[in-house]
Amino acid sequence: MKRLWIFFLFPVALAQTAQEPRGLLPLLTHPVRLQALAQLEAARAQRSAQASPLALQAQGGYGLLGYECQSQALCDALPKTASSLTLSLALTPFPFGDTQDALRRAELTVRRAELGYARAVLALLAQAYQAQGRLEEALLGLRLAEAGLALAQEGLLAAQRRLEGGGASSREVREAEARLREAQEAKVKAEEGVFLARLSAQSLVLPDQPLPPLAPPEGGVPLRVREAELALEEARVLYESTFRALLPTLQAQVLLYPSEKDQLALGLTSRTLQPTLSYTYQDPGRTSAIPGARVSREVRLGLALTLSPGLLEGLRAAENQVKGAEEALRAARLQAQVEEEALRQALAQKERGLELAKKEVSDKAKALEETQARARLGLESPLKVREAEVALLQAELKRKQAENALLGAILDLYSFYGRVPFKALEAGGEQ
Fold first, then answer.
1. Helix and strand tally (H, E) in the chain?
2. DSSP reduced 3-state for 109
3. Could you give the CA distance from residue 223 to residue 115 in angstroms, rounded to a whole number?
4. Residue ranges of domains in the chain
5. pTM surpassing 0.85?
6. ω into residue 284 within 30 of 0, thus cis?
7. Which CATH code fits 5-53+92-246+306-425?
8. Position 334 confidence tier, pLDDT thresholds 50, 70, 90
9. SS3 at position 233
10. What are the tens digits of pLDDT across the range 271-285?
11. What is the pLDDT of residues 36-60, one digit of tens each?
12. Angle between helices 98-164 and 170-201 (to 10 degrees)
């Protein structure tokens, strides 16, 4: 279906989405957005920490020593305290094993926080447009109530004149008075409605600033599908980590002893392939079991293997979790396909409804012009002119309601895709 009306109704929609939406500036400092942004920034900071290529660690110790000696003189000659200091530097030239899992989890956390931020901002956008729409409808409703009051006053005057001329009964006058009281009450309610609409909109939109128009999104991957994809990736990371825990771990270490109190070490483990450099100072130093000789270097190889029924059950649980996530993703895609079609049909219905409302406004405007022309010729009474004015305002209110319904359908599509339509409201867009 061709939607040429979009270019008539929203001639600058695409340009506006790239510009600063001035009417929506309060959303930049809204607590809901700031909370979602803080969570996103925290996730990004955690990812940066996981991606650090090195880590430095310092560790010290102090102890008191006690001895059992054959003679007190020997005990007095031995040191009474022990101290140590270790400096370690772990390098990550590339992510592997456990470090790769941690980095992938951090990346998935960022992506999930991005989706949460988009969901929060889109909810605020919907509230803002709804609040502005209610305010515009309330203002039109007030105009309509004022026109209805003028019509009721004109009707009462006409009934009173007919009563004086013998063309109406006192019952018709009472009915006109009742319509006037109803019109006065309707005006009071309309004023109260405008006040409440302004109150609800003041924290979401700027007063007297039009909101930027919105064009329907072209398409994309639905938000629910992206969330299901993230869940599947998280399940796969868990499975790989659980499977790796069943494998034997090989450790290699080279140690150098420049003196009895100093130690240099270079280590490597198969779980991460992270080279670790360390220096250790200890006092008192090492003693050799062989008189006149000391160990100057050492090469160590180690192999660790953990066998536990719990690990096997954990692997089976992780495997089932992956299968469940795959089926959840499949279900999300099927559901999204149906939902997308329903949203597109709802959008088309709102488009047709707006076209009908605009046609009704055009018809009522022509009817008002014709009534005014006939009134100038003395062929219609002022009461008929008032009635035509009220009919036009009613049609304009219907058009505004149709426009707001269309905006709601467009925002539903943006929420469905999880896309923020304005760059200024994206994460970091205000910077």
1. 9, 6
2. helix
3. 7
4. 5-53+92-246+306-425
5. no
6. yes
7. 1.20.1600.10
8. very high
9. helix
10. 999 999 999 999 887
11. 999 999 999 999 998 888 889 999 9
12. 160
